[in-house]
Specification:
The structure holds 2 protein chains of 2 kinds. Chain A has 2 domains: 2-50, no CATH class; 68-303, MetI-like fold (Orthogonal Bundle), CATH 1.10.3720. Helix content of chain A is 74%, strand content 0%. Chain A has 15 helices and no strands. Chain B has 2 domains: 7-63, no CATH class; 71-270, MetI-like (MetI-like fold, Orthogonal Bundle), CATH 1.10.3720. Chain B is mainly alpha-helical. The radius of gyration of chain B is 24 Å and the shape is globular. Chains A and B meet through helix 3, helix 5, helix 6, helix 7 and helix 8 of A and helix 1, helix 3, helix 4, helix 5 and helix 9 of B.
Chain lengths: 304, 280
Amino acid sequence: MVDSANRATPRWWPRRRHNSYTVAPLILISVNLLLFLTFFVWPAIIGLAYSFTSYTGVGDAPWVGLENYRELIGDTDFYAALLRTLIYTACVVPLMFVMSLGIAYLLVSPYAKGKPIARVIFFLPWLISPIIAGVIWRWLFGENFGLVNFVITELGGDPVSWQSNGDLSLMIVVIVATWAGTAFNMLLFIAALKNVPVSYYEAADLDGANAWQKFRNITLPAIAPTSFIVVLLSTLHAMKEYTYFVAVNDGGPGTENNLIVQYIYETGFKRTQMGYASAASFVLLLILVIVAVLQLIASRRKGS
Amino acid sequence: MAASRSRTGDMPKKIGSSAIMWLLAALYGFPLLWFVVSSFKPGGELFSYPLTFWPKNPTLKGYTDAWTSFDFPGYLINTMIVAIAATLLTIMVSAACGYALAKYGNWWLKIFAGCILATTMLPTETILAPLFLVVRNLGLYNSLSGVVIPAVITATGTFMFRQFFVTVPNDLLEAARIDGSSELSTFFRIMLPLSRPIVLTLAIFSFQWRWNEYLWPLIILNEPSQFTLQIGIAGIVGANNVNWSILISASVLSMVPLVAIYLVFQKYVMNADINAGLKD
């Protein structure tokens, strides 16, 4: 009946055909489309263009060809920042992974008591801004006034130079980032762990498997897709970290803990070498893409 | 199955799991607790050894100093404007786009979905300098809208809505069409109200992102009258002689609105099924 009505009134024909709705979805995505073109496509294009110039943010943008990239290859400050970024990432991602998975595991386990309150405690750091998270730990690890050094001296040790030693400073940022980033990854893991079928564990119980065997052979494979997402996102996030370093020690001591985004910020906005900073940005983007592709390949190979 | 297991056999597991969990909770909770407790100590007591956990002479002086000695109220208002405006816009735009991606089959929508997902690979930091130039050329430099507008598009929000609307039966849409409801009014009158849980979840996410953002506002805002809280607080941290009394109190104050919102909407955040296109 509906069909014959459709055929009888020509107005219905185009609307019932596949792909006949064009205007409505176009209106619905229009704002996002405009924002995407303005704030992603346009900057990406002019960024690439400016990376071949010695633009300073005002006036002309003299074309210098590949000069910026050539200079970047020989720039020891850039390498130092890149190396520091890689070290930081290699420290923070595994620690974050273990902590968020461990806590998520405890929070879904039927044995731990007081989970609702513990969950709120674990989640609170997510609400705290990177600047303030840095300040909180800086306060705890102050060289002359911090609680940690106070406890160390009370126990008969020597105060530790948390601020003036670059590696210890980096370690504090790793702790801050883990502390603040756990909550979000923990949520992802909780959702994944809840979706592992209970029957798997019951079957393993019948076979007499112990807790570690169950975790290793059932839980880990079942949550592999989530693990992949957590590792990927944490890596990409760590590679572009900036704010924790500013709050903990201003990227110091000196410029020792200047990561790559801080390097881009300093060259682009403080020394107004927009062209050079754009080139450095593109190298960062390239590294991020390579990291993501490598992790994707690794997870595919593991899956098959 | 679990019930049939012997209760005595579970005891060591219960004690062990609880002990580890609460040890970790103490580790995670303590830094914040120490910070908040410190905010009630008078300036001299903050540094006088031996340190005590509870303040000997609790005072609110740090808070009154923080409120008056730098433009805390002004920064607070700016931050509120940014967070609220960005959140409202983000929800509208993400819901509309997510709905279109879920309920229409046009080929260009699939391409656009891929583009949005790709923005997670192209974070603001990698286009910092050119993005700044674009925003400046649009005349948004040194204005709060320059902070808000580029932040409105988010892959996380769009895909949260897409996932949700995929689960809404198509029959509902067909029924609305047969009733003569136009496409857009179906979206606004039927679909958007249905997605209330996603709206609330994304609202909290977006509010937190914008409230805590540092680098982008720092680049865009030039005059102190436009600063947000994070820039103001980072300014105290960056000073040669850090005034810890004011810094700690101002930091605690700046966290209060978010914690309050979180406690009200806790169940939405905790149950959020977030797994696609995550980005802050």
